[in-house]
């Protein structure tokens, strides 16, 4: 009896490991942009005929805004609009939302000095104090 190998078509391809990606955040809706244009109480002239429009934290709590936007009202803190004064149109929409899965995006690295490092720093401070005293 002869044993034949499996044909190539029956061999399984190796599974590729895919790194988990951060969930994308939906772009701001038209209703959100209209709310910013209508209720923006922070206006900063940045030059070149452009003005940055934002809604302040105090204004975000307004019931009229939160009811009209629903869940998307929380995005008001993340979205700003660059308004072109010369053309009277939106130049750019700035979205500072951080995708989920990247919670520590802005966190700075933390470290702790060892006892040996602390002793070294103390010694260096003593040497500087002696050098200034002389």
In helices, the fraction of residues equals 25-40%
Shape: flat
Unreliably modeled segments: none
Structure classification: alpha+beta
In the sheet with the most strands, the strands line up as: 1-2-3-4
Mean pLDDT: 84
Strand content: 15-25%
**Largest sheet entry:** 4 strands, antiparallel
The tally of helices reads 4
Radius of gyration: 29 Å
Calculate the terminal CA-CA distance, rounded to whole Å: 98 Å
- Helix/strand order: HEEHHEEH
Number of strands: 4
Structure description:
- The protein is α+β, with helices and mostly antiparallel strands and 134 residues long.
- The chain has a domain at 30-97.
- 30% of the residues lie in helices and 18% in strands.
- The protein has four helices and four strands; from the N terminus they run αββααββα.
- A four-stranded antiparallel β-sheet has the order 1-2-3-4, with helices on one face.
- β1 (42-47) and β2 (50-54) form a beta hairpin.
- The longest helix has 19 residues, at 115-133.
- The protein is flat and about 65 Å long.
Write the layout of secondary structure elements.
Elements: H1 30-39, E1 42-47, E2 50-54, H2 57-60, H3 63-69, E3 79-84, E4 89-95, H4 115-133
Antiparallel strand pairs: 1-2, 2-3, 3-4
Summed up, what is this model?
This protein is an alpha+beta fold and 134 residues long.
Brief descriptors of the model:
134 residues; alpha+beta; four-stranded antiparallel β-sheet; 4 helices; flat
């Amino acid at each position: 009896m002869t044993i034949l190998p499996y044909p190539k078509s029956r061999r399984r391809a190796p599974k590729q490991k895919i790194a988990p990606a951060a969930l994308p955040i939906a772009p701001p809706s038209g209703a959100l942009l209209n709310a910013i244009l209508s209720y923006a109480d922070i206006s900063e002239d940045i030059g070149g005929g452009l003005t940055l429009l934002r809604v302040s934290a105090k204004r975000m709590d307004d019931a009229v805004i939160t009811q009209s936007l629903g869940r998307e009202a929380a995005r008001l803190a993340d979205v700003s609009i660059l308004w072109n004064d010369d053309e009277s149109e939106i130049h750019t929409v700035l979205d500072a939302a951080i995708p989920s899965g990247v919670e520590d995006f802005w966190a700075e690295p933390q470290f702790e000095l060892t006892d040996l490092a602390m002793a070294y720093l103390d010694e260096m401070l003593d040497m500087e104090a002696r050098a200034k005293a002389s």
